[in-house]
């Protein structure tokens, strides 16, 4: 499988797992008496924390250049190939097979 296709597949699996996690979490929040499974125990707690209210700052502070910095973030986005004629038509890679037990190339 080409690394791009594998990454897309893994992200799809993660999305499915996160969805299922949400369903199970809601169930446990609504049924706290069922907090003990065969192998694990769920402990539901509530935490409080302080949150900075940026919207309450005056504009002269929000617009002060000395208080800002630039942050660069690199993303890898994958999307389906729109034209079905080209799906699967590209070579898998340059001859390097990536497996989950191998470190990333580079």
Distance between the termini: 19 Å
Average pLDDT taken over every residue: 86
Helix and strand composition category: mainly alpha
What is the CA-atom radius of gyration, in angstroms?
A: 23 Å
**Helix fraction by DSSP (H/I, runs of at least 4):** 25-40%
Question: Describe the biggest sheet?
Answer: none
State the total count of DSSP E strands.
0
Q: Please tell me what the overall shape is.
A: flat
Work out the strand percent. Answer: under 5%
Spans of at least 5 consecutive residues whose pLDDT stays below 50 are none
SSE sequence, one letter per element: HH
List its salient traits.
0% strand; 30% helix; 106 residues; 2 helices; mainly alpha
Q: What is the topological layout?
A:
Elements: H1 3-30, H2 59-62
Structure description:
- It is a single chain.
- With 106 residues, the chain is mostly helical.
- The chain has a domain at 1-30 and 41-71.
- The chain has two helices and no strands.
- The protein has helices at residues 3-30, 59-62.
- The radius of gyration is 23 Å and the shape is flat.
